[in-house]
Design a protein that fits this description.
This protein has 70 residues and is mainly alpha-helical. The chain is built from 5 helices and no strands. It comes from Faecalicatena contorta.
Length: 70
């Protein structure tokens, strides 16, 4: 299993924004299962998905990957 800092941050931001996994997955044009894999640390989102998440959550990519506190 990969370090789950990114997945934990995605989950926190998703919940903070009141989104279900399906809601965020639809906005990213990925499956709910793919998003679940990111959140539990089985996979890491690609850079384009990270950029889109940053836009959706109104945060920087650095915050998603854990380079800054939020």
């Amino acid at each position: 299993m990969l370090d789950n800092k990114i997945g934990d941050n995605i989950r926190v931001l998703r919940k903070k924004n009141g989104l279900l996994q399906k809601d965020l997955a639809d906005q990213l044009n990925i499956t709910r299962q793919a998003l679940s894999n990111y959140e539990v640390g089985k996979r890491i989102p690609d850079i384009f998905e990270l950029i889109r998440m940053a836009e959706i959550f109104k945060v920087s990519v650095d915050e998603i990957i854990g380079r800054e506190g939020f």
